[in-house]
Amino acid sequence: MASLPQGPAPVSRESSGVTIGGESSAEEKLRASNALLRAISSAQADFIRGGEPRDLLHRLLAVVLELTGSTSGVIGEVLAGTSAPASLRLLASVPREDDGTTWELGATRDAPAQEPGSLRAIAGAVFTSGAPVQGGGPGARHTFLGLPLESGGERVGLVGLAQRPGGYDAGLIDFLQPFLTACGDLLAGGRNEQRRRRAEQELRQTQEASAERVRLLAERLRLMMDSVQDGLWDLDMTTGRLFANRAWMGMLGYAEGELEHTQGTWMSLCHPEDAEETERLVQEHLKGAIALVEREQRMRRKDGGWSWVLTRARVVARDEQGRPLRMVGTNVDITTQKRTEERLRALIRTLPDIVLRQSADGTYLDYHAPKPEDLAVPPEKLIGSNMREAPFPASLLDKMFMHLGRAIREGTLEVFDYALEMPEGREYYEARIRRSGSDEAVSIIRNITERKLFESRLLQQEEELRRHRDSLEELVRNRSEKLLKATIELEEQQAQLIQAEKMASLGQMAAGVAHEINNPVSYVMSNLGTLDQYVSSLSPLLQLQRELLSNPGGSLTEQLERMAELWKQEEVDYLLSDMPELIEESLAGTRRIKEIAASLRSFAREDTGEPQLVDVNTELASTLKIVWNELKYKCEVKRDFGPLPPVSCHPTQISQVFTNLLVNAAHAIETRGEIRIRTRQEGSEVVVEIADTGKGMTQETLSKLFTPFFTTKPRGQGTGLGLSVSYGIIAKHKGRIDVQSQPGQGSTFTIRLPAAQR
């Protein structure tokens, strides 16, 4: 048989149980103890009102399994006969056994000690030893605990618990003592109840007087009430007399008979500051406004000190008019608990911060405020009020509820700052929120105004340092005029370099542009030669018409015949139909020449003025006209121009960027390919993509692509300045240029320029 561990030791638990052990916090122990005492008090009160012991034991067993984290257990009554072997009749079990199930307790006191492996074995071991028995230990797969139940020095039953992770220890047995006492008393009371019922049956059979039955009932009640540790009482509200157990006054140090059992006696012991509220709660309950009187109050002990007592009471009988006749209740000494709470409160009172306990919906449950005037709600109205009733801005309330919900939901520590306008000025606060229960959290509010003021003073000092730095910089500027002049000269040289690169690009395109101009010039000259022939053919006819008009009296018939012959001979009808087409073709050719000349003039001019509002689509179309001769023999150009807002820029510089990218794209295509030009607006930016299906670039080339004088073209065919200049132009316009490329998969240049502010 396993021995119990010496001294308290920590006991692990699953989420369904509480931790009861040496390392458990006072708050956890207090919460578990309160839960167990409430269950015991409720069961005892229900037993007094006639509840079945078996049902009450089932309730108590369920509570203990939850508090200890055990998964199964039994409560049984020991049946020991003179002839038959002892047995255990199960009164409560989880999982539930059939009513009347019995276990034979076959072990003898001389049986050898062994490790129990089941609840049935634990029961036999406890019956044999008469003491608590533990099976399994920390880390064991199966753990068991058996405890004897006694009442009045007699062993009346057994309790068995099983499958608690981490096993059972002596600290847990101490925690379960009130439960063991209550179960023993319930078993003893149940036996007394059975004896009372048999006595009642005998009384009915012998037709004894009703007064004797009342006496037996009163005796049974007193026996039960005297067997529990808490004060139990039954008040006759018509006479004010109390029927109470010995603990009713014993918890205050009074012996039986020292005080009269009346309602007035109890009220006379109540602290003056608590009596009025207690009376109010009783009256509210009598009127039906509240279902139960539950009150923590101070009671005067025999030695003159004060004890904290938790009183719960309820009316259980009324007459036909609804007037209360009987009230029953319990009194539990909670002085130790209140002292623990007071120590915790004393610890909190040392904090200089505001401490608030709130439910998830924002209701204030408790608070601590060193200076009540710092609270946003008057202290007397704070408890029970909701955070949304506080005079906070809506945005701050939303922020507080967001952090409160996250702290309760996720268990995180939420920290944030906020400011409030107070009568004495703006105050700054820091809030820290931590979950303190399944549906509540504790907030610590600290006034950080002094820290903010210090930070402000620090900023002022930094500003003072900045002013000193500025004065020093002014001295440096005064001594750096030569450097500034050199910088200006460098910028002028850079502008000249850009213009030179532009003219170099223009020179490279000169042959293509000349070819573009030569085509329309050729067919304009051809059309003019044809028109000259047409005019020569029409001259005799026009001469004849002049003679006819100057000599109207001549031979009209002869002149008309000559005109008709000339008309047919010179094919005047064909000439008249062909001349408009020749003139239109010539005009189109001259317009084409004019467009090319205008584009060249626009491209070649030097930017000296302010930026202009430019339509990027228009600039792209104009640039395509300039470089068309470089593109038309190598690729097909596909346009996808979207609607764009205007861009504030130097148009010739932007056109130069487009020219460099389009010409480079054409050079990257070795035989025949495609160039795709796409424009769009993304947010506040104008985006231009120029993609080609050329040979692409390696990562090494991409890393040096915008370096001045770097080129992949053969010597003499490139300056290495085109992309470097383009990069500088785009950066100068507060834009950016990116490139994506892989060998054999072409390249895509993306230009992003900020749209002009409207």
Automatic annotation (TrEMBL):
The keyword Ribosomal protein does not apply. This is histidine kinase. It comes from Archangium gephyra. Keywords: Coiled coil, Phosphoprotein. Residues 293-346 form the PAC domain. Residues 217-289 form the PAS domain. Its EC number is 2.7.13.3. PROSITE patterns: HIS_KIN, PAC, PAS. Signal peptide: none annotated. InterPro entries: HATPase_C_sf, HATPase_dom, His_kinase_dom, HisK_dim/P_dom, HisK_dim/P_sf, PAC, PAS, PAS-assoc_C. Residues 1-24 are annotated as: Disordered. It comes from the Bacteria. It catalyses: ATP + protein L-histidine = ADP + protein N-phospho-L-histidine. Residues 455-503 form a coiled coil. Residues 512-757 form the Histidine kinase domain. Gene3D superfamilies: 1.10.287.130, Histidine kinase-like ATPase, C-terminal domain, PAS domain.
